[in-house]
Amino acid sequence: MTLAPHKKAKALKSTSRRPAKELCSECGLCDTYYIHYVKEACAFINQQIAELEEQTHDRSRNLENPDDWYFGVHQNMMAARKREPIPGAQWTGIVSTIAIEMLTRGLVEGVVCVQNTEADRFQPKPVIARTPEEILAARVNKPTLSPNLSVLEQVEQSAMKRLLVIGVGCQIQALRAVEKQLGLEKLYVLGTPCVDNVTRAGLQKFLDTTSRSPSTVVYYEFMQDFRVHFKHEDGSVETVPFFGLKTNQLKDVFAPSCMSCFDYVNSLADLVVGYMGAPFGWQWIVVRNNRGQEMLDLVRGQIETQPVVSQGDRRNAVQQSIPAYDKGVTLPMWAAKLMGVVIEKIGPKGLEYARFSIDSHFTRNYLYVKRNHPEKLEAHVPEYARRIVGQYRLPE
Predict the structure, then answer these.
(1) Which of 122, 186, 195, 343 is deepest in the core (most CB within 10 A)?
(2) In angstroms, rounded to a whole number, what is the distance separating the alpha carbons of residues 371 and 321?
(3) Running DSSP on this structure, what letter comes out for residue 394?
């Protein structure tokens, strides 16, 4: 299939719509002339993870292996952290360091990443970084829907042939679907796990209802100790237990696309760097293929690693969380803190915490699709997600 001439495509772009409608994740593909492929490429119109895994990794998940259900195709997993963290990085800066090494060594000519606008540190601004300084300007997650793929036109117009793209699952599925149309000689994909993004207005509601000082939050993360960690401008860290979130007010704040997503672990990236399968203070790295190993090898001398571990049993906690979320239950803060302390001591850790997070979100999302888009349920929910959800009792 060939693209329409660019002049015609430009006209199409100006009148483009969002074919996924309310499920659109604003990945940016529809803002380019690659909208021509959106009905095949969009993760929320045409879920095709298994086929794209085969294309990307030379195999899809082994459904006889529960680790594949949860973590996707992978060659290796580990916990890691930089020996000398990058100042201002959300973690220790592994993602930024890999991107800088790939650029300065000439493996790629540009890096698709997300800076923020001058007016708003949480408003994403996708760019093609061509210098280490531009990469560093993109450090820290932007917890809002981000049109990363909107820069694909610039890639083609620049005549780049070697590219690194940093992104989340919905963006990467669309990217993989149009990969062969980009005219690249080499594409590397560095992914981050992603769940529960919001619009900018939704983010503000979350901050206003959760943090003691919404206007000074620099970044935040839902951490392995079952607390949300808010980093403030003065360097202080504020923690709020998961079970103390005002679920009754926040239940509908997440984007419908995120409530319909079953690719938390970014299964089509070459290398994934997150945190949920690692001990507190470490990052979780998943190598999916040889390109991912090549990327990780670039920073081997700058990081320390340790094997992943798995402790505890998440099943009871997941089963109890299903009706609690469904009914919008919010505990008094004293009870939430107490429950957080207990679960931190005896609850799931390492890969079992990752499974807890995946189970909790997949059961919730399955119910969301079943109730709000029943016509999509059969085609949209991947087989590995069905097997995960099938371990639990769900309300109607």
Answers:
(1) 195
(2) 18
(3) -
